[in-house]
Amino acid sequence: MIDKSSVSDRTPLASVIIVTWNAKRYVEECLCSLRENVEVPIEIIVVDNASFDGTAELVRDRFPEACLIEATENLGFAKGNNLGIAHSRGKYLFLVNSDVKVPPGCVSKLICCMEANPSVGMLGPQMLGPDGKVRRSIMRRPVLWSLFCRALALDSIFRGRRWTGGFLMSDFGHDRTCDVEVLNGWFWVVRREALEQVGLLDDRFFMYGEDMDWSYRFRKAGWRLVFYAEAGAIHYGGASSAAAPVRFYIEMQRANFQYWRKHHGWLSFLAYYCITILHEVVRIAGHAGIYLLKPGARRDAAYKVRRSSATLRWLIEGADCTAEFGQLRADSTANTIQQS
């Protein structure tokens, strides 16, 4: 049970932060669900990343209870959330995607879990699709072997086997509460005490990758990350990225490179680069085959061939990975000299 007596009228128990970019319809549904289904004292902070679809006007006119922060440019996910956090006051921070619908009781259950488990620094609910089916929302920390298995689609061929599907946890049913290594960044509940120790999101990640980085930093600082199966919320998925799917797919690859550079040495980074190229080559060949053999699936297959082709071009021509290797190798050499 939540103790409301310790929370004054001026101090909300939780701060809900929503970062959005051109997702007006989803933002409206998200804010309506918060208005109708939350029974505890909260503040709502919406950070609009220079949307041009009328999102800011919608929030201003229809949801005056929300604090609207209008950025003059698209700050990205991490920097947008950091801006919202800077304006927040709650004991718990709910970082919620704009395309999430919060059902009755969800917020209260998550807060109760945090109150009962002071060692938990970050909590994530069960992700439900619009059809009510449970979706994946957690990962294990990526390692080269699991990424290699994914590149060759072994995690799909041998679905449910940990030795191939360890990274995306295809062996886990998302039906029980447990400690995890990575909570995906669609819906986070963060303890302010833990945030003050770990620090803000790394805003060098524009979009994607920040969830792996933040999760790693929380665990390194000694805080537990917990997937909480007793509460769930609906996630439509891709509300902002749908406007430019190929661009955002490449942004995801860019973020993964940033993460790998930040937490690994240059040899590991080189191996990761080769595995990523292999991944896209296999996808081009596989979806080209689907295009030829399954006429009914041609539209989707053609899009995925274009997407992987664009990513492969970026990897070879635009990722500037030679400079990355050189910098990482120089850093590694400098560290070795310093230690000696």
Describe the structure.
This protein is of the alpha/beta class and 340 residues long. It has 2 domains: 4-137 and 174-239, Spore Coat Polysaccharide Biosynthesis Protein SpsA, Chain A, CATH 3.90.550; 244-339. It has 13 helices and 12 strands. The chain has helices at 24-37, 55-62, 77-86, 106-116, 144-151, 154-157, 162-165, 192-198, 210-220, 245-263, 266-293, 298-318, 321-339, and strands spanning 14-20, 42-48, 67-70, 92-96, 100-101, 120-128, 134-135, 138-139, 178-179, 182-183, 187-191, 224-235. The strands form 2 sheets. Strands 1, 2, 3, 4, 5, 6, 7, 9, 11 and 12 form a 10-stranded mixed sheet that branches. The chain has a two-stranded antiparallel sheet with strand order 8-10. Helix 2 links the parallel strand 2 (42-48) and strand 3.
In brief:
This protein has helices at residues 24-37, 55-62, 77-86, 106-116, 144-151, 154-157, 162-165, 192-198, 210-220, 245-263, 266-293, 298-318, 321-339; strands at residues 14-20, 42-48, 67-70, 92-96, 100-101, 120-128, 134-135, 138-139, 178-179, 182-183, 187-191, 224-235. The chain is an alpha/beta fold and 340 residues long. The N and C termini lie far apart (56 Å).
Q: Which helices and strands appear, and what pairs or packs with what?
A:
Blueprint: E1 14-20, H1 24-37, E2 42-48, H2 55-62, E3 67-70, H3 77-86, E4 92-96, E5 100-101, H4 106-116, E6 120-128, E7 134-135, E8 138-139, H5 144-151, H6 154-157, H7 162-165, E9 178-179, E10 182-183, E11 187-191, H8 192-198, H9 210-220, E12 224-235, H10 245-263, H11 266-293, H12 298-318, H13 321-339
Parallel strand pairs: 1-2, 1-4, 2-3, 6-12
Antiparallel strand pairs: 4-11, 5-12, 6-7, 6-11, 8-10, 9-12
